Amino acid sequence: MTIDLEQRVFVAGHRGMVGSAIVRLLQAKGYQNIITATHAELDLCNQAAVNEFFINNQIDQVYLAAAKVGGIHANNTFPADFIYQNLMIEANIIHAAHQNDVQKLMFLGSSCIYPKFAQQPIKETELLTGILESTNEPYAIAKIAGIKLCESYNRQYGRDYRSVMPTNLYGPHDNFHAENSHVIPALLRRFHEAVKENTEEVVIWGSGKPMREFLHVDDMAAASVYVMELNDTVLKANTQPMLSHINVGTGVDCTIRELAETVARVTGFNGKLTFDATKPDGTPRKLMNISRLESLGWKASITLEEGLKDAYQWYLENIETVRA
């Protein structure tokens, strides 16, 4: 299949962790017309503004990486913000894409769409088979709606709107906020500060027993572009009826305790690790079944320790900005 590098490709959320990685990869592959817009230039929650943007830019393809994201604390504290903003962003972009005859779109979701006690490793068919994890249910419902929007426009209008569901992501341009970040940036920041301040102990939320799978954002970008560029015939031959999304992960998980120990090595922390079991653990285990993606010919290539070193180096180089 020949890739048209002249197509006008809109990357929504290009300043975020995933969006920026997709832009870097598209540039490296030689795409000539990558279209982006900052929040000041385009409010994705404004339907009229989004539609006007599509009309003015004559877009051919969309990577929908824009989203309001955060960790357990942020999801618990701002549930209305998480469900409203994510629903508006995806609905506005997907509908505007259809109205302006954009045939190809890639929606980036999240593994939190799956039930809290889904069978492990989690297959795509586990979607909507049980209750969601309560701490991030509003965000998860918004992401499920995004999948169903893509699926519905495909069914009703013959669009080619694809969805990929990544496991837990980390890497350059992550959110290192002291309270609202995910587990890896939170730990990198906390361990770095402990080393700098010569602290003897680092306290970590939860029991340390839950198991998580982590994917470096550059691998996520590679998988997203790979799936987007797949020939439609190849993709359909590998697709179960009514299955419109693909899991993206490494197929390998570890406990939060093991993760913390690895982060300690990467940051040079030699003190004591203490786990605060009074804090919520979230889902006991969340490992993606990635057999479908592997059968399509793609595998992750960045190991966890390798990826953590890269993320920590980026944090060190941008520490004044990200700490703010």
Automatic annotation (TrEMBL):
Binding site for NADP(+): 13-19, 108-111, 143, 166-169, 182
Annotated metabolic or biological route of this protein: Nucleotide-sugar biosynthesis; GDP-L-fucose biosynthesis via de novo pathway; GDP-L-fucose from GDP-alpha-D-mannose: step 2/2
Residue span, NAD-dependent epimerase/dehydratase domain: 9-236
E.C. numbers: 1.1.1.271
Positions bearing the site annotation: Important for catalytic activity: S110, C112
Catalytic activity, reaction form: GDP-beta-L-fucose + NADP(+) = GDP-4-dehydro-alpha-D-rhamnose + NADPH + H(+)
Domain of life: Bacteria
Annotated substrate binding sites: R190, W205, R212, D281
Oxidoreductase keyword on record: yes
Keyword line: Isomerase, Multifunctional enzyme, NADP, Oxidoreductase
Molecular function GO terms recorded: GDP-L-fucose synthase activity; isomerase activity; NADP+ binding
Annotated catalytic residues: Y139 (proton donor/acceptor)
Keyword Lyase annotated: no
GO BP annotations, alphabetical order: 'de novo' GDP-L-fucose biosynthetic process
Gene3D superfamilies listed in its UniProt record: NAD(P)-binding Rossmann-like Domain (3.40.50.720), UDP-galactose 4-epimerase, domain 1 (3.90.25.10)
Record-linked HAMAP family: GDP_fucose_synth (MF_00956)
UniProt record similarity statement: Belongs to the NAD(P)-dependent epimerase/dehydratase family. Fucose synthase subfamily.
Function of the molecule: Catalyzes the two-step NADP-dependent conversion of GDP-4-dehydro-6-deoxy-D-mannose to GDP-fucose, involving an epimerase and a reductase reaction.
Annotated protein name in UniProt: GDP-L-fucose synthase
Organism: Acinetobacter qingfengensis
Taxonomic lineage: Bacteria, Pseudomonadati, Pseudomonadota, Gammaproteobacteria, Moraxellales
